[in-house]
Amino acid sequence: MGRLLFLGLLIALIIYLVKRYIRNKISAGTAADQPVNLGTEDMVQCATCQVHIARSEAFLVQQHFYCCPAHTPKK
Fold first, then answer.
1. Would you say residue 39 has pLDDT above 80?
2. Other C-beta atoms lying within 10 Å of the C-beta of residue 68
3. Are 60 and 71 in contact (CB under 8 A)?
4. Environment class of residue 50 by beta-carbon count within 10 Å: exposed (0-12), middle (13-18) or buried (19+)?
5. By CB neighbour count within 10 A (0-12 exposed, 13-18 middle, 19+ buried), where does 64 fall?
């Protein structure tokens, strides 16, 4: 009976270690495939309401940044 219990525990340990190895292999592969954002983006201030917004989302009109089209000067 003792040998059977020992054999069962040994098999369970081997299965656990194999699953852990496979899980680590998969998670390491997916992390390497995703791009890493190392840079930061400049913030600019709206000339009308003074709200800070990312430069890529701002509207540039006549050397001034605006947060939305409603704040841009009308002609």
1. no
2. 14
3. no
4. exposed
5. middle
Q: Could you identify the residue written with the tokens 């020992």?
A: 6
3-state SS string over 5-74? HHHHHHHHHHHHHHHHHHHHHHHHHHHHHCCCCCCCCCEEECCCCCCEEEHHHCEEECCEEECCHHHCCC
Q: Which of 60, 62, 67 is nearest to 46 (CA)?
A: 67
Nearest to 67 by CA among 75, 56, 53: 53
- The reply to whether the predicted model has a pTM over 0.70 is no
- Average pLDDT in the 25-52 region? 79
Output the pLDDT for position 3.
Answer: 93
Spatial separation of the C-alpha atoms in residues 39 and 21, rounded to whole Å? 33
